Amino acid sequence: MDVTIGDRVAGRTAGLVGRSAELALFDRVLCRDLDRNVLLVHGPGGIGKTQLLRAWSAAATAAGRPTRWIDARSIEPLPAAIAAALADVAPATVVFLDGFERIAAGARELRDDVVPRMPGDAVVVIAGRDRPDSGWMAGGWARVSFVLELAALDTPSAVELLGVHGVPPEPAREIAQWAAGSPLALVLAATAWQRHGRITPEPRLVATLVRLTTAVRWGTTHFDALATCAIARRTTMELLADALEPGADAETAFEWLAALPFVDRVGDAVTLHDAVRKPMRTSLLGSRPARERELRRRITDHLYRRGTLGDRSVLTDLAHLVRNPVLRWTYCWDGSSRYHADRIRPGDTEVLAAAMDERGYPRWWSWTEPYHRLSPRNVVVARDGAGTPVGHAVWLTPGSAPRAALAEDPFGRDCLRFAAETCASTEVVIWRDSIDLTTDSWAALAMLNIAVAMRADVANPRHAIVPLFQHNERLHEFCLAVGGTVIPELDRTIDGRPLCAYWIDYGPDGLRGHQRDQVYREMGVPPALSVEQVRAALESFGVAAALAEHPLAVGIGVEQRAESVRSTLRDGIGAAFGSSPREEELRAVLWQRFVESGPTSAATARALSMSKATYFRRLTEAVRRLTEHLAAQHG
Question: What InterPro entries does this protein map onto (predicted)?
């Protein structure tokens, strides 16, 4: 990992205080005095794991060894992504994998499939919060692995670290008494002391230190940059440029962020240390909800635009901005420390078959098993940290439905038939099966869900069909919260249990647009309007019940909400167009066809002395122009 000027400014390349034993240990590894290929470093957040790995990386470079730095936050918690990040390691390379707790469920695949392929003189350093699982010291791994628990700094080392950051000995000794040897707390305390000359700790230590450290002035570029970093899951320079005010120097602001002691650089992005994010957001934005909403909106719009360019990873970035836990959990990697999604491996089908038989689902499994056997690409398996299958998902899309497997699955055929007859679109994903064999917080199910969203042939589905047994309460809650409706013709009783299926219509902008609109709704901002939504409102101008459910509707009761939409449309038609003859034509097309409720398009065209072709061209243009006007007014 190359050292930057920002690293030097932040003191990241200064002598590592209080870690002489750890530095000596790594020197022994480099010179083969300690013949180990895998170093497993663990300790709580803020204890200095990343700083130690940076110092080790510098030592490896100085010794002439090639290095590779991987931050687990920059890769998806999927075996293929982990393997790709660690592929093609050259001889004698030292690989540093930081933040391993985020992908810890992939430890078995890393140990069984990835690390064994590396050259015999390579060294792999894995750092995470949790103690490594016993598999790293079982069998032959005990000959190549070494576990190191990183402890808190003792008092002399804490005082020395504070001195490196400019705190005189006497206040340094006072701070060391309550900082509990945490390097992160000590560095934050040093920064706060430099700003204020003294600090008095409060029970919520990190929150207090963040408040004292982040004395950036309201209304400045630095304030908005730090607030953006506290809101977004990861902040790239492009995202920052869209979040800051026009004309702000995003490049300089990005480098300033990267140099802060509690900000980590992850690939092309920066992200706040986990222990700091929440108190930072509270410190900066707790009393400024309007600014928080505006920055959140800009971040949301940036991510949505990036998604339209084909970046599927924005699904997890957008989910990070959603506050409703029922909607958020399905598209987050929050369970990646315990579970990971994977392809089918030998033995998986037998394990899952036994589990389904034990739970009393023999018929359902007989319809599902063909996908394992005949179309494994349509199956995702969830595994725990030991690599044991703990669930699976089967997905289908109209454009790539596996005919051989479907021949043995009548329910799958019925789902596809409904999609063809009702959805009127190929942008459909059918969650044919979602089975979670765990008993905890549904984290495995969430891993399966996001894995399907990432893998399915349809990148941004308009529709989803989700079959569920009655006991799957969490997914029932999600389907209802997202506006799903039960499909009566797909109701079944299978293995003595009721099965239903939900039809979810995410809207004309698809799943990605639905996520964007959910963030908007939670901020109290009307969702972004589409041409289809405006056209639907115009077509329903005289139907109060339909207008009352429209995104533009406000007020209480059907009539009041419907009239609010009519008023918005009338005002919009009046204001969206100019005074030229062409502009007046556009206004007249909308007014006479919808507001005055012309009987047919043909009659409206005759009343306006237009040919049908001209009328429909004007109508299309007028609806688009009205949409742009309303979006600007309500965005």
Answer: P-loop_NTPase
